[in-house]
Design goal:
Blueprint lengths: L4 E10 L8 H5 L2 H25 L5 E10 L1 H12 L3 E6 L6 E3 L3 H9 L3 E6 L9 E5 L8 H14 L2 E8 L7 H13 L5 E7 L3 H12 L3 E5 L3 H8 E3 L6 H4 L2 E4 L2
Parallel strand pairs: 1-2, 3-5, 6-7, 6-9, 7-8, 9-11
Antiparallel strand pairs: 4-10, 5-11
Helix pairs in contact: 3-4
């Protein structure tokens, strides 16, 4: 709250996919599109008034954007246009044979938009974060740009960083993983952190135990580590995993 920041509040009215035969129908919807955008902008202005009333802060500037288009493409354009440093999205999991921790829109943004993303579950209650769990298997070579957002969150909020690695029983880090761990240690030398290793067969189960035992306020991951990301964000419905319900996810990008 003591840092100057510009917030772009974006709503995307998703464009339907038209076939060639439907192009004439699409053209007739121009007036409807204008009305949709007009209503969206009115809704955004109402939200803006609520924000300014509940959280007055002279250091924070808010800009509203109502768009009509394809969801991911619109976000890509906004990120490039405004040089966005962090995307914040609310998210709902999807049901099915496998339950996805984040919904399809959030998942698409994680994989296709080159920007750090903070996914907020619908049941999350805001508190000043005290501990962040950084889940890693040390298979990715870290760099400053990848960790910049994480370091900024830690510094601004004076948060403790808990680095979690999950290994199967009897397994050890190989030379490459130890090298990446050393790189991570070097990049984080200016902040407080500690390493934790849990021996469990399943990463999501280990993360659940860790979140519960330490009252973790946020989970951070690197998008480049796709294998680990999939293990954490997708789980069978039969598992008793609940960290996705109320713990925000910070996904880091290069």
């Amino acid at each position: 709250k003591n840092t100057a920041c510009t917030f772009y509040i974006l709503t995307v009215n998703i464009r339907p996919s038209f076939t060639g035969a439907q192009s004439s129908v699409q053209a007739k919807h121009e007036k409807l599109i204008k009305n949709i955008l007009k209503q969206s902008e009115a809704d955004l202005q109402g939200l803006l008034r609520r924000i300014e009333k509940l959280f007055p802060n002279s250091k924070h500037k808010f800009v509203t954007e109502a768009e009509y288009g394809y969801f991911v493409d619109t976000i890509k354009r906004m990120v490039a246009k405004h040089k966005i440093g962090l995307i914040v999205m609310g998210t709902k999991g999807a049901s099915g044979l496998k339950k996805i921790i984040v919904g399809s829109n959030t998942s698409a943004v994680i994989s296709k938009v080159k920007c750090a993303l903070l996914a907020i579950p619908e049941n999350a209650i805001y508190e000043n974060p005290k501990e962040i769990a950084f889940a890693t298997d040390f298979k990715v070579a870290y760099n400053h740009k990848m960790l910049e957002t994480l370091k900024e969150v830690i510094t601004l909020n004076k948060v403790s960083l808990r680095i979690l690695n999950v290994l199967r029983k009897g397994k050890k880090l190989n030379d490459k993983q130890n090298s990446n761990k050393a790189l991570l240690t070097d990049y984080l030398k200016d902040i407080g952190y500690s390493f934790y290793t849990l021996s469990k067969a399943e990463v999501d189960e280990a993360l659940q135990c860790f979140v519960e035992s330490r009252n973790i306020d946020m989970i951070a991951m690197v998008e480049k580590d796709r294998s680990l990301l999939q293990k954490i964000l997708i789980r069978p419905t039969v598992k008793n995993i609940s960290y996705h319900i109320d713990v925000p996810f910070l996904v880091l990008r290069e």
